[in-house]
Amino acid sequence: MDTSKSKREWQEKVLQPSTKRFPEREEHFLTTSGFEIDDLYTPDDAEAFDYDQNLGYPGEFPFTRGIQPTMYRGRMWTMRQYAGFASAQATNQRYHYLLEQGQTGLSVAFDLPTQIGYDSDSHQAKGEIGKVGVPISSLEDMEILFEGIPLGKVSTSMTINSSAPILLAMYIAVGKKQGIDPSKLNGTIQNDVLKEYIARGTYIFPPKPSMRLTTDIFHYCAQNLPQWNTISISGYHIREAGSTAAQEIAFTLADGIAYVQAAIDAGLDVDKFAGRLSFFFAANTNLLEEVAKFRAARRLWAKIMHDRFEAKDPRSMMLRFHTQTCGHTLTAQQPDNNVIRTAIQALAAVLGGTQSLHTNSRDEAYATPSEDAVTLALRTQQLLAFETGVADCTDPLGGSYYMEHLTDALEEKASEYIQKIDDLGGARAAIEHGYQQREIQESSYRTQKEIESGKKIVVGVNKFVSPYPEITGLLRIDPAEAAKQTQRLTSLKAKRDNEKVTQALNRLKDVASSEENTMPVFIDCVEAYATLGEICNVLRGVFGEQEEILVI
Amino acid sequence: MADEQKIRVLVAKPGLDGHDRGAKVVARALRDYGMEVIYTGLRQTPEMIAQSALQEDVDVVGVSILSGAHLELFPIVLEKLREKGLEHTIVLAGGIIPEEDHTALRQMGIEGIFGPGTSTNDIADFIKKAVADKKAA
Predict the structure, then answer these.
(1) Residue B2: pLDDT over 60
(2) N or C: which end of chain A has fewer CB within 10 A?
């Protein structure tokens, strides 16, 4: 691009003499995605800029500026703290507490056995019960988890993937017991198994049957739970595993493409399900690149849905997303700094137009967060919403020369990665090649080396190091909780109608082996109080188990 | 270097925890520091870890846990190593392990604990010294 006369004059007369006397801090300034940043962006950089094509208006294609016409002037984002630990009862108390503190949606963290389809009394669950989330082995646990919480009024997000249809079946069943028709239920299941193979690790079955369960949910919810977000296609874990911002967009949207294609291949009409797809991204401390990331992701997804899948309904093209601040940026050293990191990351999410937000707690480099730490994290969001004024104007950074340049650059880089994944045969095939895993590991190793060489500064860790008070009041999980949980499971198995359980599980085996939709039979199974482990074992028998695609 | 044997390290992920960023970075870094590194992959039982340690004849087992299950899983890993006659293997812990649990882990026989913010250089130096001390003893 030709530099304008005025900029050239400024460079020659003002900038160059100045940098001669005072050299810049770095020879090259780079974003985390590796783009070189110029010293200044001006109208020159916006020469080819077409407002209507690149930005448009909020609520209109390509949705760069936001998916709703009013954004936060209409309604604040949903403040949704991810929580779950120890037992259904303890977690239920935390939910009541968070709702009293002004949280506006629930977000369930399940423990690892629940996520991988093992009951609390299985040997695989040893040591893990209630550790990173709440243990749910049966409908009984789920009833306790939501006791006193009106499912017709709250929206609930559940971080559950390979066992998602079973936990969704339990949620539907609890709703029915509260007298709530499934069509009135509001919430999200993560249900994104592809990123489990890439970055998160809680897969059970091989990709093909897993994708079938995913599309069964799309189909079932389109008919029965029209307000339910059937998937939350997640870049969060990809970023946490070490990717750059551009890789986060690309690998997430490539997974999205695979799900949309799978659903179309299963005979669904794109506009019947695409409006219920949602996304989940990370918010890093690199503020401006992050804001650009959200904008670029929104625009790129709109184009993909419009051009590649020929969606007609604008809702099918809207990238709605949840954001969580980056856990991996939190440090064990000088943990109070984490409050500041989280506040900046949350600001990035808000300036980027997130629909809901989780802010991490200052003690997360040590343990599952304590109640005090979670409250402070929630207050951070409330402060952003009600004191800073950033929610008063839609896409406030739109039109900044630098912001638009970054948005374009990220979209372009992400498109290149998506092209590469397409060339490898799509997200699933690329995962089987280890492509995304390898790219992420390269980025993560590079970051580590940059921190160790001092090229990348982490305050309190490799620079500005000073003694800090030890963090206190960490949450401890009482081992007695795990014992109580397994006892309850034993007594449930004794008191339920075991014949009914066997019948339901036999029927599940038939349905899983056929092409019939699995959701109705999952609901029958959980309503008969078949356990999560029993249900997953039937599926393991039919689908087989996935082995790790080891890339190192 | 010719007659000096490479230090052999097993990097292991026990339990159901899927957080493998740290384990993979450490595995690769130790390799770059000239060690022979075997990475187990996810979802290893303590028995599988001890079996790999035996088969691979390692000097060091580095165990990474971020799920909070360290106080439950480490004693079993150590017990399985002892059962296989590997009580002299150096066992290290990495991951999210609060300070207040360090004493308990050291008393069990964990020789080094490396939390968030650790430099891989420090881990490599620790291993080199611990292995040299063992050989001298």
Answers:
(1) no
(2) N
Taking an 8 Å cut-off on Cβ atoms, the answer to whether A445 and B28 are in contact is yes
Tell me which of B21, B79, B96 to substitute to probe the interface with A (most A C-beta atoms closer than 10 Å): B21
Binary contact (A201, B42; C-beta < 8 A): yes
Q: Which residues contact A231 (CB under 8 A, 6 or more apart)?
A: A189, A190, A191, A192, A214, A217, A218, A259, A276, A277, A278
Interior/surface letters A8-32, b for 16+ CB within 10 angstroms, e for the rest: eeeeeeeeeeeeeeeeeeeeeeebb
- Range A435-439 average pLDDT: 98
Tens of pLDDT along B27-61?
999 999 999 999 999 999 999 999 999 999 999 99
Asked if the C-beta of B15 comes within 8 angstroms of chain A's C-beta atoms, the answer is: yes
CATH topology of domain B8-130: Rossmann fold (3.40.50)
Cross-chain residue pair B116–A331, CB shorter than 8 Å = yes
Domain chopping of chain B, boundaries: 8-130
- Chain B nearest C-alpha distance from A136 (Å): 16
Find the CB nearest A461 among B41, B67, B117: B117
A240 touches chain B (CB under 8 A): yes
Mean pLDDT of A319-325: 98
Interatomic CA distance for residues A199 and A186, integer angstroms: 28
Secondary structure (3-state) at A34: coil
- Give the chain A residue nearest B115 (alpha carbons): A332
| DSSP tag of A50 | -
CA–CA dist A228, A143 (Å, integer) = 20
Q: Where are the domains of chain A?
A: 51-453
Do the Cβ atoms of B16 and A240 come within 8 Å? no
Per-residue pLDDT band at A530 (split at 50, 70, 90): very high
Whole-model pTM over 0.90:
yes
pLDDT, residue A2, reads 65
| CATH code, A51-453 | 3.20.20.240
Q: What is the pLDDT of residue A1?
A: 52
